Amino acid sequence: xxxxxxxxxxxxxxxxxxxxxxxxxxxxxxxxxxxxxxxxxxxxxxxxxxxxxxxxxxxxxxxxxxxxxxxxxxxxxxxxxxxxxxxxxxxxxxxxxxxxxxxxxxxxxxxxxxxxxxxxxxxxxxxxxxxxxxxxxxxxxxxxxxxxxxxxxxxxxxxxxxxxxxxxxxxxxxxxxxxxxxxxxxxxxxxxxxxxxxxxxxxxxxxxxxxxxxxxxxxxxxxxxxxxxxxxxxxxxxxxxxxxxxxxxxxxxxxxxxxxxxxxxxxxxxxxxxxxxxxxxxxxxxxxxxxxxxxxxxxxxxxxxxxxxxxxxxxxxxxxxxxxxxxxxxxxxxxxxxxxxxxxxxxxxx
Length: 350
Known about the structure:
By secondary structure, this protein is α/β, with parallel strands linked by helices. It has helices spanning 4-13, 34-40, 51-63, 78-82, 120-135, 148-152, 158-167, 169-193, 207-233, 250-255, 269-275, 287-292, 295-307, 325-337, and strands at 70-71, 86-88, 97-100, 141-146, 197-201, 237-242, 260-263, 280-285, 312-315.
């Protein structure tokens, strides 16, 4: 029988597996729920700033019948805070959020602080990864990065940022280069700490916001720079998550060098799997149904996702902390019942 780590690795390569893996990476795609906080005795917001608490809480999901991976951190604010943004650490049921931007314009990008991977929450994340790797070597540890567009729009008011992508394109690209170089440094630190997979979530980099041309100019090249640099460090599996409708950016998604594309429930899995054939297709169980639906309904939804071309079963986005652990177990159990899954073949450097 394959271990969860082996199964995910094979699925990311596009190889046949005994059944689909069922994961939730962390980062934007947070998987921590109140039931797991109660079971582990560890909770937010304290777990955002303590490596042992973070590791215990992440492990608590898998160890209590949840998703088949460990994943940290539990938000998208680590990089923004390290680069100068002010962050509110949230509550037991609310994730951290940026409350003040360090920039007023992309022209000010040189005011940004570089990420120090040996300080602050960046260091806490890498320490948690090391703890998780030691805790159970059969379970994949998924590292997480905020995507370059999403990080940039967490450092400057988003509407200003989007306007200046075109009005001040040269400076915007300079800022994106700096942001990307810092994401590479943090990504490499997480891989060096022991992560076997990297998930990059860029919800603000959607084609619905940027448009097809903007996605090609400001999302694809910088995501691919991160992927190329990480692969120089290690042959880890790489997942990219893009929110919104993807129909108008299928060519851009195909151009991404990731092993898998993760997407939300607004995108049709069958259409995506038929149009993007060089990647594992990851998703896309509705997080609304995951929180509000009955376990029996979720089992059917999970099976339908796989029938529509999903090869790695996952929530479509970050799940709400009030989601019942029983509902998470329902989609994991559904994945376990799907024996002898044959995934689409693709070429991959792994």
